[in-house]
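LOG
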Amino acid sequence: MSKIKISKIIRTKRKNIALMITRDATLIVRAPMRTPLGYIEKLVEKKFAWIEKKMQEFEKRPKAVKKTFFEGEEFLHLGRKYKLKLTEGIKIELGENLELFFPRTFLWRARQRMSDWYKKQAQKAIFERTEIIASKLNLKYSSLKISNAKTNWGSCGPKNSLNFNWRLVMVPEKIIEYVIIHELIHIVEKNHSAKFWNKVAVVMPEYREAREWLRHNQGLVEFL
């Protein structure tokens, strides 16, 4: 049995040890301040099978591929793949034949231009859906913003302010709806208790499939 490498040990004023496998299949250990290194290593050895299984799962997931903005390169929008077509136009547009028209004059700042376009698309897609779903559930939020979060798809603040990651606009509409419902339910249930998940299930019985889709495909939308 080969030894598993611990990438990082984070010591805080916590009471228990937590093992976390990151999206790049590395192991991070969160431990109480005075926990001996030997004790942590023995725990990792004891959990070898679980850690190895999780690492293999992460390694199989789609990885982010940095975009280079060449003709025909694929970009996601609401779960559909669009092929980049360089044009002499003045704005980024979606075509009817799954084409994404991108002005050549934008190439010198292509990443920034595409990110800005995605953020505007996200605002259109997410704001309207959130308002409709919140109305149906009779839930009220204090504010709604598109964020640039690196890890969270969405969040609900203590005062019921909602934030959604702009990269959501790349995923299928059903997945967007799941994230919106998830955060809206946090208005009445601030944690991830059984009560919280039961309320999510009432609105979206198939929420587990949507949650698993996000876990498995997160790498697909991390290229910008």
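LOG (cont.) second protein
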Amino acid sequence: MKYAVVVIDMQRGLFETDPEPFETAEVVARINALTARARSQGNPVVFVQHERQGSELAFGGAGWELISGLAVQESDIKVRKMTPDSFLRTDLEQVLKNRDVDALCICGYATEFCVDTTVRSAAAHGYPVFLVADAHTTHDKEHLPASLVRDHHNRTLSDVTSFGVPITAVACETFLRTEE
């Protein structure tokens, strides 16, 4: 299986906040482990960056940049998006086809928006998805702490079978062991 690691919206404008997203340091460390493994196996790494004019996520601005601490290599691919769906009106699908990718490992920010939407869209595009259960995050919500948002999406997305391909929530360490 040739997979790509798709890292969603790990950007300064979303993380340099008070408070920062849930388990930021741990999530970054797990993403770095995932991307290092992928590169060592010749699998592509894709960093998706959200942009919105007139906001902290304006293209090219400081808030649009990836957060420090992420291990980004020159060989990594960057995709710009303007909706929660990393496939919609982007070149992500062509990037994946050009590299003969047949499965996705998805992680990043924000669990309940761009991660959720991209997982569902990836499955709709026919890609089996490994949602790295402890490598996506969000901020606490008024009605629910981020840890429960993440847990809810891990459980809910794993139950979605209607696309005809599996969506599997798996811990980072488990994914790394299965890809050895």
